[in-house]
Fold AraC family transcriptional regulator.
Amino acid sequence: MDAIMSDMILPIRQVRLNLGEPCRAIEVSHDQDDPFLEPHRHEYWELVWCKEDKGTQSIDFVEYENRTNRLFTIAPGQVHLSEFMGNNVRLLVFVPGFVETNKRSTQLVESVFATHSNRPPYIDCSEEGIPYLEPLFNMIREECERGEKECDWGLVESLINCFLRYLLRYAKASSEKGEQRDTRVGQLVELIDLHYKEEKKCQFYASKLALTSKRLNEIVKAERGKTVTQLIHDRIMLEANRDLVFSVKTIKTIALELGFEDPAYFSRFYRKQMSESPAEFRLRCVDSTTL
């Protein structure tokens, strides 16, 4: 079955910015042919700025509606596709490390992209913020269009910093649960990202945070409504699904890379989480009109 599926699936491309081009600002039109508009796995930061209530964005297998002045925040490693991007959308993409040149700017990027929180992957900007964001985006786009040799990338970096700060200043308060209150939850999520393939027990993460397993579970349950083990399983499943849909790896290879010595055990684990086998999920996604 693995061999058959490998022949059927074409991997979704990993899109990179060109060498020497750390940033792009794009005005999207419905007939535009651009790799950033195709299903892809990110190797960069991206803001998708919707200017009307048309279209959708699918980020890590969850679909969200476009809303006027909603800016989707997509981080490196995430899977992004859109059956209909919308006719009035702007994209701002930049490579990791371009803006994060010091602790303050690194924290700014982490705040906007909610890398360690449970916030939905978008920010709704109030109308009061648009007169600030519009000219900043245009200046970024115009400077980037000067080309690699003439563009002042230091100026672009400063403009992006301004854009992100104004975006946070004029972000509407989210009505959805997910605002992080305990910094240890963010630290836990970061630790899980680093170690989930080899460390799948709560005790490991509790010791890293100088807490008992019981206390860490209490904190996480209050913040996320889940146990530490459930967060670890969620991260494993996210990576498994990314690989099943957007790579030609065999299920055995995926299992081994995720730290499962026995591929059969991985399949049982997967079925328990998804109520279907990895092969069934892969086949369903191949047949999906969305993918």
Observations:
- The first strand starts at residue 14 and ends at 15.
- The two ends are 20 Å apart (CA to CA).
- Residues 1-15 have pLDDT under 50 and may be disordered.
- The chain has two domains: 14-169, 183-287.
